[in-house]
## 1
Amino acid sequence: MLHQEFRPSNNTSRPQLRDRNILNRLLDYLDKYGITPECLKIKLLESALLDERSDVIAENVHRLMQHGFLVALDGFGTGHAAISTLRKFAVSRIKTDRSLARDLNLDEEQQVITGAIISVAERLWIKVLAEGVETDLEEGTLQRIGVSLRPRVSARKADADFNAQRRGYCAAA
C-alpha cells in the first residue's frame, strides 16, 4: 500500500502531455512493474498550460486523474498561467512557487495574493502545498492563511528515513 509521505513523481514535459497515448504508455509501464496509478504523482509545470494545444493537454490530465494518478501543478504563482486555468485543467494539487513564500511574513500584499490563490484552489477542491519555506515566520504566516506545509527536515534525516522505510510503500494493490 502507498505510504502518504512517499510517492514517486514524474516531471512531465509539454510534448509528453500532448501525446494522446500518454495514459496507455504510463499504464503499460506501471503494469510491467506491478505498480498502481495511485503510486505515481504526475507533475506538470504551470508553463505547460500555455501550450497552443492545451485542449489535448486538459483531456490527458483529466484522463490521468480518472485512472487514479495524482496530478500536481508545480511552481504555481510564477505568473505564467491565470488562476482560471485551474478549472480547465482540474489538477489534484498545486505547489506554489518559492517566490510566494519568500519573506511572506514581511509583505502584506503578498499575503493577500497568496491567500487568494489558496481560496480559489480550496473552492475547486485543489490542495495547496507551499514550496521553499525556510523560516519559522514564513511557515507561521503560511499556516495562518491556510497552506499545507511539508515538514522541514534535514537532508540527512530524510535520507535515513527513506533508507529505513523504503520497502513496501508502493506495492501493487
## 2
Amino acid sequence: MDLREFTERYVVRAKALQPAPGAPPDARLPRFKRDRFMVLGRDSERRAGDTGPVLKTGINLGYARCGPGKGFCSHKHPDCEIFVVLSGHWKITIADDTEVTVGPLDVVAVPGDIFHAAVNIGEDEGYMMSINMGTDTAGYALHPAILEELGLQAPVTQP
C-alpha cells in the first residue's frame, strides 16, 4: 500500500471534518447546542463521503465543539466514556453532585451507568474528544430531569 492509499483509507484530517447531521434530543435546548464530528466509528452518524476511516476498531471517537456556556446534558452509557479536553476549560458533572474542572489534555474516564454532563466554562469555543465502546452510536439514556424539560414521556435511549 502506498502513502496515498494509506492516507485516504486511514488518516482523518481535522480540517476536512464536517459536523455530523442531526443531533441528540438535548440539542433542542439552547444550552446544549453543539457541533459533533464523527472521527472513528459511528457509521450511522457519518455523512456519505466523510473523510477518514470507517474501521471496526471497537470504539467510537468523536469531537464536540461548543461555544462558551454550552455543552451536553446529563446522560449515561452502559459502558465507560472517556473525555479528552482538546481546548478550553470544561466543568464535568458526575452523578448530579460531583464536579471537576478540566483543561487542555486532561482526561476524565466516566464509569458506565453513571450520569454525567459537561459544559464549556471558558470564554472561547472549546473542543472535547469523547471515546465510547462499540462500533456505532454508543447506547445512552438521558437524565430524567432532561426528559422532563424536553417534555418527553418515555426514556430516550439509543441502542
